[in-house]
Amino acid sequence: MENFMSDELLGTFAPILVYWVYSGIYVLLSPFENYRLHPKKDEHVKNLVSKRTVVRGVLLQQALQAAVAVILFSVTSNGGEATNLQPSLLVKARQFLVAMFVLDTWQYFMHRYMHHNKFLYRHIHSQHHRLVVPYAFGALYNHPLEGLLLDTIGGALSFLLSGMSPRASIFFFSFATIKTVDDHCGLWLPGNLFHMLFNNNSAYHDIHHQLYGGKYNFSQPFFVTWDKILGTHMPYSLEKRTGGGFEARPAKDKI
Ligand SMILES: [Zn+2]
Ligand SMILES: [Zn+2]
Fold first, then answer.
1. Could you give a GO molecular-function term held by this entry (predicted)?
2. Over the stretch 110-119, which tens digit does the pLDDT of each residue have?
């Protein structure tokens, strides 16, 4: 029982810790112009919100999500009776993939609807798009209602439908958090495994954050599948930027 409870708490709080540690590393790397997707100064010129407000917004959201997650875990808990029944590695891998698919599916349709519905965009999702030049710790800068709808409910669905244990959820939610932070890091670093393994990466999501990108690249956080199936996929090329670094340029004929 004690272990089970600590798994639940870790599943809730480890992703928060991981978020700040991983984005902290990117804060240290962010001055390296040669790997940036936008000039550093554009963080101040183009973004419509200060970093202080972003930090406050993310902390508020994480506090709300932690509260909801603790409640959800306690509602779905089986009292710790199955603590020692750990599934095989194959089953765990399948649960992980199912959770990725469920989270991707939920987030794609909710995210796309947030752009389609003008009221929801204006009052809720536009908050995230104040970051035209994304940076790592802005990844979860969202309206609290969006955090609840996309992240918390999406996370709860992927947990419940995949059937994973609270212990596995520690790794899944931490992984999803790292992936989301990486997609907003604003850098194209050599050897970044996420860039090699996922077509959905910091350049792909950067396109969505640009003013012309609001109709494309809704898929998040893992695969580009739904964008491809439903025709919202914007291919891009990574060009050298004058002044160092790179620029993700959209395929011109689609804009
Ligand atoms: Zn969006
Ligand atoms: Zn984003």
1. oxidoreductase activity
2. 999 999 999 9
